[in-house]
Amino acid sequence: VRSARAHALSGAFSNASGLFVAKIGALLNYLRYKITMDNSERGGSLRNIHAHYDLSNDLFSSFLDKETLMYSSAIYDAVAVPPGNLLGGKSNIVFRGTLEEAQWRKLDTLLDRAQVRPGQTLLDIGFGWGGLTLHAAKKYGCRVTGITLSVEQKA
Hints:
By secondary structure, this protein is mainly α. It has six helices and four strands; from the N terminus they run αααββαβαβα. The chain has helices spanning 4-36, 45-53, 57-61, 99-113, 131-140, 151-154, and strands at 77-80, 93-96, 121-125, 143-147. Strands 1-2 form a two-stranded antiparallel ribbon. Strands 3-4 form a two-stranded parallel sheet. α5 links the parallel β3 and β4. The longest helix has 33 residues, at 4-36. The radius of gyration is 26 Å and the shape is elongated.
């Protein structure tokens, strides 16, 4: 039978060792962040941006949509197809429309969900070629500030 004092002392050592391990883990996470993911020039993000986005606007124009030059998460018009009309595919959903239409749908969905209204100010960080920025200003009447580190995208 252990005394209450011995039990409390054992708990204190257990808590102290757990705290020590947590602090070591936090330090290792911080060092990993500073070495691999820091958004400063020392961390390399500016170098990575130039290596990826400053290749050539002609290159990106060859495979992105022609109007916004956006490359993520287009929202196509999805239509359910009756099981007998699958045309060899397994999915019962068909996506209709062009890539450009799907990109405009994405922008409208995003701006509608954000409840962007005329007169508001929108900050677009890493704005690419300005598809969201221009669309928000033209269609929704808001003021937009875009920030990018890419020389090609800013041009």
